[in-house]
Amino acid sequence: MDQPKGKVCVTGASGFLASWLVKRILLEGYEVIGTVRDPANEKKLAHLWKLERAKERLLLVKADLMEDGSFDNAIIGCQGVFHTASPVLKPTSNPEEEILKPAIEGTLNVLRSCSKNQSLKRVVLTSSSSTVRIRDDFDPNIPLDESVWTSVELCKRFQVWYALSKTLAEQAAWKFCEENSIDLVTVLPSFLVGPSLPPDLCSTASDVLGLLKGETEKFQWHGQMGYVHIDDVARTHILVFEHEAAGGRYICSSNVVSLEELASFLSTRYPSLPIPKRFEKLNRLHYDFDTSKIKSLGLKFKSLEEMFDDCIASFVEKGYLSHVVTSQ
User: Which are the contacts of 247, defined by CB distance < 8 A and separation ≥ 6?
Assistant: First the structure.
């Protein structure tokens, strides 16, 4: 095997996106230090050890987002850090303490470790397209780009905790990195669709599975949403890390469609699945994303068909769905 391209750290390595990112980075020829809560949890981490080159080039170490200094060992000596770990978001009685604080403090804890690393070239932070699209003052005819920020006041008023946590965490990251001369690039994915590597489905994949099984509750709040293949998001992280001239924020989204359009597409393409036909109409402004910035680095987005075909094949393989008929 060739010499590794370099050593990088991926935080929260067993997650939905992070697992796919680890897979891609290993294939690109890097040595990967992945942080997890419990390196001894064989069941939860088995999918990572099955990845190509994992035996030779993957090391999993313990780290806790809320423990200052716990990322030092993983990050020191790495040329790059991909910070994907974020708190698990569940209904909570105290969102400030249980969602906002972990998102912001967890990000800052990782960046404090980065600031001690003399070998560091760049940090790539996984943010979210929700950090640009929640506003009441945009022109629906002009696509949203990376210069736009979600309204913190609007998120607080309507208690949109996920978007608020991502927005405040990204803003805190920019402030810290400017003050500490850290080269930061952020990736802003829309809703991830694609194969799931971990044995247990995350909330994102579970929501998609529910929709394919005919459930409407979890998806009802989506209204209009951007969708993107998980592999496109992983490749975006690597592109912005490797392109020396890359900088700032990068929106990563393939299609923006309404829930009605999505349901129509899914029921036509997968006629054997009980896709819901009717949804409560949500009065939300149309929006699109301007993705020219990431496309300028050479990314070509996979289609809606590809992302759902790959996602459904993964569900069938894992036993969550039986054989699915696809209309070509």
Answer: 183, 185
Residue 44 lies in a domain: yes
Q: Residue 88 is part of which domain span?
A: 7-195+227-256+286-301
pLDDT higher than threshold 70 for residue 91: no
The Cβ of residue 305 has, within 10 Å, a number of other Cβ atoms equal to 12
CATH number reported for the structural domain that contains residue 173 in this entry:
3.40.50.720
25 CB-near residues (< 8 Å, 6+ apart): 8, 10, 32, 82, 238
Using CA atoms, how far apart are residues 313 and 292, in angstroms rounded to an integer? 30
Give CA–CA dist 20/51, Å, rounded.
10
On whether residue 200 sits in a domain, the answer given is no
Residue 67: helix, strand or coil by DSSP? coil
pTM as predicted: 0.95
What is the domain count for the chain? Answer: 1
Q: What is the pLDDT of residues 49-58, one digit of tens each?
A: 999 999 999 9
